[in-house]
Amino acid sequence: MTTLPDIMPISDLRKDTAAAMKRIKAAKRPLIITQRGRAAAVIISVTAYERSERERELLRRIAQGEREIAAGKGYDLESILAEAETFLAAESD
After folding, report:
1. Cα separations (Å) of 38 from 9, 33, 42?
2. For 4-55, what is each residue's pLDDT tens digit?
């Protein structure tokens, strides 16, 4: 079952910004700000923003790797594992 998003009119945000911040922290999900009855902005916590940015960077790197593989660039798995084993063996000495 999906939950309804938290929505707040911009007029309420202007009146009580502190309450909006409390809602964001308590609900741990975005708060949609409406203006004239339409979604105008989304406010999220810093924690949620940082997590989203990390996930976005990971997806960007995966997409870059897939483009490199398609272009015949990069290294095969066996080469990477052999290099990792050599590195780990040198570290343990």
Report:
1. 9, 8, 12
2. 779 999 999 999 999 899 888 888 889 999 999 999 999 999 999 999 999 9
Q: Which two tokens stand for residue 3?
A: 């939950």
How far is the CA of 62 from the CAs of 55, 59, 71, 80, in angstroms? 11, 5, 14, 16
Cα–Cα–Cα angle for 56, 62, 66, rounded to 5 degrees: 145
Q: What is the pTM of this model?
A: 0.63
Region(s) of the chain under CATH 3.40.1620: 6-44
Q: Is 3.40.1620 the CATH classification of the domain at 6-44?
A: yes
pLDDT band of residue 90 (cuts 50, 70, 90) is confident
